[in-house]
């Protein structure tokens, strides 16, 4: 077996018929410009989500911790794609084999973390819906262990090609889209993600069917309101999952074709599917803003913080939990605001 660790990236790209130019073409400029714009918005939006969950005590529950971890995965995805944008096009030629594996490994890790996190959210929602609780009984300690486990698995899967599942020593098995990755690894990764999507869709379908049945059987007003709260949160999570499937499925199917069909043209729309997949990472904050009034209000308070701070004679703290109290001296009610 002959290994080609001393060869350049150009050697593998020529082998896979994936041309890389040493000059900037119009297509390269468009893709990189669009990609950079998306990356900066992804990073900003997901930092905003993480700040909102951290600062607002109403979000200090397991489901929101998992949603916060999903935002962390999307933030990592934005950083990974930002790194990719500065190491793509003509810049690709200058990469060493190790740098190329780092570039691709970051993308794989971020996607895997998002997929596993969505699965964890689906299972958490399954548990809470069937016990009819708005928030699960999972302790903070278990949530932390779950989050650590998600990232450990994601990092391991991202490092697998670097640890040997590549085609540097078997160039006949090299893929077209990722010229140093083995076709079998791409098939494994794509099938794993598509199966995970299928399981999550099945879980949410079961939740929806059983939930509608229980909702019709509810008699008391308090029960109806309680279940509406549960299902409103579930609808938000379903929208997040649906957006993820729509944005990522074309790219995963393309990877599957690359691994299984050597004669298929998978390079024509590759970069645009990549940008579509990255767009998913800034859709979640938009969904939160649309579905969650508390989240939307928290976003506004965070974004308006500099404006409030610049106004003289006004306290610049960010308000979240407002409680009504009675003033015994003035015999009237006033609001006490908790500052975080």
Would you summarize the structure shown here?
The chain is mainly alpha-helical and 340 residues long. The chain contains ten helices and two strands, in the order H-H-H-H-H-H-H-H-H-H-E-E. It has a two-stranded antiparallel ribbon.
Structure commentary:
- It is a single chain.
- By secondary structure, the protein is mostly helical.
- It contains ten helices and two strands.
- Helices cover 67% and strands 5% of the residues.
- Strands 1-2 form a two-stranded antiparallel sheet.
- Strand 1 (319-327) and strand 2 form a beta hairpin.
- The protein is globular.
What topology, given as strand order, has the largest sheet?
1-2
Proportion of residues in helical segments:
55-70%
So how many helices? 10
Mean pLDDT: 80
Poorly predicted runs are: 313-340
Kindly list the characteristics that best describe this protein.
10 helices, disordered C terminus, mainly alpha, 340 residues
